[in-house]
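USER: I would love a firmer grasp of how sequence relates to backbone shape in proteins. This is the protein in question:
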Amino acid sequence: MKAGIVGLPNVGKSTLFNALTNAGALAANYPFATIDPNVGVVPIPDPRLEIIQRYIKTQKVVPAVLELVDIAGLVRGASKGEGKGNAFLGHIRDVDAIIQVVRCFEKAPGGEDITHVDGSVDPIRDILTIEQELILSDLQTCESAKAKAERAARGNDRDAKARLAVLERLVPVLEDGKPARTLEVADPDQKKALRGLGLITLKPMLYLANVDDDDVTGQGPLAQRVREYAESVGSEVVPVCARIESELSELDAEDKVEILKDMGMDEPALNKLARAAYRLLGYQSYYTAGEKEVRAWTIPQGCKAPQAAGVIHSDFEKGFIRVECYSVADLEQYKTEKAIKEAGKMRIEGKDYVMQDADVCHFLFSR
């Protein structure tokens, strides 16, 4: 799961990226990795892994991970190459979801006045500035693709006809200032064509409201405006204070609990961000547990057993025979896999089984 962190200059984007990825570096049982200067891989907090480890002792625990990409700051005109526009738009095409950091504070902690690129703090204006640049970029992509599809469709190419049909519907949507994700497409061929266009505004958007340290739950008027906007477009908001998260990222677990308590927070922002990203993308986790490791695997909701096995290795999907599975709740109740089997809770499922969240699985496959 790969998410790009975007935002206008001086909204706290890079501070948050550094805090979140450093928090991942300090998390137990998982080695933090830096792929590039602007890419970090952090573990997704998952208490169910602790439950499994309690009853199935293994050498290590491996959580699912969230890959965060700190994408070059965007300015108005990025779709035309202004600022680092080309780099921004190139990197953002490679992520699964977009996390937009929105400034919801007037002054920095300590009263420092941080100048906003547009001269005043207005979170909705900031959101719309970025969205408009992404829409304009997609419009350019679609206009170019439409000309090519028109030529190819003359040759009775089925794929080209489907692509042209969806583009003829999509271009007016983008011209009207709406993102591609708002277009409803029922035809399977057109759906496939739409996915193949690589459009930025098809990607789901999650909002991080960077709030003052006296408003950590995001109840202030600026964060509330972002929350209302997010609800209107079917998205979510995670309130976060960059300064607090930066401090928390440097602490060990015991000190972190104390600071969170003092601040009236129940958990760091990384936990909330990870869960929100899972919901946004429609993902869930299943687990494998053996002598060497307990591991969480990320799959889309509705995924069938062979495809879930393929996340581990493509050979598992090709040679899939069946899966033995039970829930984390079953393990918590019966304590051992032997007891789960004796209670008749160990299920044997075939190729049409739709994976459930929190399944613990043993896959059988032919080589």
The first helix runs from residue 13 to 25. The longest strand covers residues 97-104. The radius of gyration is 23 Å. Residues 24-35 have pLDDT under 50 and may be disordered.
